[in-house]
Amino acid sequence: MVFEDPVSRRLLEQIERIAPSDATVLVIGETGTGKELVARHIHALSKRSKYMFGALNCAALSENLIESELFGHEKGAFTGALTSKEGWFETADKGSLFLDEIGDLPLGLQAKLLRVLQEREVVKVGSRQPKPVDVRIIAATNINLEEAVAAQHFRADLYYRFNVATIHLMPLLERPGDILPLARHFLKIYGERLGHDEVKLSPGAELALVNYDWPGNIRELENAIHRTLLVCPGNRLGPEDFKLSGVRAPEHVPAVSVDSLETALERLCEQAPPKLFEIIEETVIRIAFGYCEKNQVQTAKLLDISRNVLRHKLELYGMLQQVGKRGSVLHLER
């Protein structure tokens, strides 16, 4: 890991204080800020470093699959369970388990996870026999869990369990001293992989990298370095090689007219149908869900809500079923 900026140096000091303990850790930060790298560093500095480090993205799997991945399952527990399988809690026994996007964990699984943390034992899907486990949990999220608790999308008791030692990762924009050291680090890694001699940045390239906002944080920087090395010959990179202006969102985006939307809403208000807000909310969610080709992760991102909130709304309006009662439609007319 690279800790050159004063903000990052203070973060490293905090990690070094927390790591030797067995305290549950909550890492909070935007996507791409290096939450898993921090989790791995905590594990490497802990007394559990010689044992397994497991990692699971809670937003990447369905509720049934997450339960099986976390706790394991017995043979025949469900269709396709041809053999018994250990879950991550058993696999990472005596080690550390990193749970990414913990804010997207379904409420039903939150209760089961809380029980595991309290009792220190797991029960496989399809079994009644508990098995003791000794695992340190390092959780991560890019959402405000306090707000999720207030909205009843995240269990308060589980939040308190996680919120023992909290680490806040600042966006790369707020720790500019890390940008060039990280860039050189990625140049070395990908340069060696691609068989290049030592590749350096020109002063202009360094200035371009430092002045860029990096909305995608460290992940965007890493991908920019990798992409540039793939397409640019030579061992000296200039600012024109990175084409960051093509990656960054335009500064002046033409405003989308909402006149037709406002007109439609005014007409609905005049009609005053029952459950007006639900009609509007359902329509917005259905349109976004269809636009994202029924991808829940992309829909939640588009609407700027958590996946748990989206899943609740989809179930509420019957959009998770292939057949069912069709909801009210908001027609936009000029």
UniProtKB/TrEMBL annotation:
SMART domains: AAA (SM00382). It holds the Pfam family AAA_lid_14. Residues 1-230 form the Sigma-54 factor interaction domain. It comes from the Bacteria. One of its GO terms (molecular function) is ATP binding. Keywords: ATP-binding, DNA-binding, Nucleotide-binding, Transcription, Transcription regulation. One of its GO terms (biological process) is regulation of DNA-templated transcription. The keyword DNA-binding applies. This is Fis family transcriptional regulator.
